[in-house]
Amino acid sequence: MAAPAEASLGALRGSLGSVLSGLRAGAFEAASREATQLSLAFAREPPDGEAGERLAGGVQQAALAAASVYYQLPKGQGTTLRKAVRDATLEMLEGLVQLTEAILRAPGLPSVSREQLVSTGGLWEACHRVSALPRDNQAAVAWVLSSCLGVVRDALEEMEQAQTEGGDPYGDVLDDDDLGTRGNRDVYWSEADRRLLGPCLGLVKSAKACLKKVLGAVRAHGQVDTAEQVAQLDDLADIAGDVSPSVDELALSTYPPVNQLTLRLNAAKLASVLKKMLEITRASHVCPPSEEGWVQFLAGAVDHNLDRIKGLTQELL
Fold it and tell me: What is the pLDDT of residues 47-95, one digit of tens each?
């Protein structure tokens, strides 16, 4: 009986997801339409009291309808999905406030003010982006992982570029006059610092690989048929959100003047986050037996790079 029950629950969740997708698209389209009418009305002679009240009432009702989409979204659909819808709703409401303020600052002008045009366009964009929102929690978590992966890729590229530019990592951002003289040793790596750069770079590469593989597993195996599956996906999104800040902290600590103890601590923090993400992945439904090999391999890569950093900074303890 358990399998048919889960299948029914999965079908219900899919149906609910389709209904909610339609609701939020329609609500946000209505908000965009009402805001446009308000903007156009005030581009000419301001409407009289009754007409103005109708316009304001239409905008208010549309805003409330869009906001209610978030509150109608069941918590069982997943906190990551709810956050995506909440953020889109807040962006729309903030755009509406900006448009209203722009109208109030320039009432009765013979044409639409530049500020009003920009505010209206921004509101349109916020409303139209709703169509790109994730449909379910699997898609929402995949979007979070993809965003984190993009940030880590950027940090890795910056680190690699700095290290390939020789002994001066600030060569592309500072001129000689910025420091009076580029002979300042604080802007160059020492030999001891340089020995740490390799394993630090290796640890960030491991972070990139972890996010990429977890993203692939979520896309391939992620399900939202049960409350447990939804919660497991949310756990992955939560821990992934800790990866990019930890990568940034480690990357910044590799720039001279290097405090090797701070670098060691930041490396340990990133390694801990990556190991935790791999553990959560291994214990979740996105990691069938076919995925366990890369989880173990990446955990070993994280340990290897951290051990190298510890070995090179052991005398500091």
Answer: 666 777 787 788 788 778 878 877 888 889 999 999 998 888 888 888 8
Report the distance separating Cα 115 and Cα 165, nearest Å: 44
Over 90: is that where the pLDDT of 107 sits? no
CA atoms lying within 13 Å on the CB side of residue 76:
11
Dist CA 96 CA 90 (whole Å): 10
Q: What are the residues whose beta carbons fall under 8 Å from the beta carbon of 50, sequence distance 6 or more?
A: none
User: Is pTM, for the whole model, over 0.70?
Assistant: yes
Residue keyed to tokens 């990446």: 298
Place of tokens 């900074």: 313
CB-based burial label for 162 (10 Å; 0-12, 13-18, 19+): buried
Taking the alpha carbons of 206, 209, 210, 211 in that order, is the dihedral positive or negative?
Answer: positive
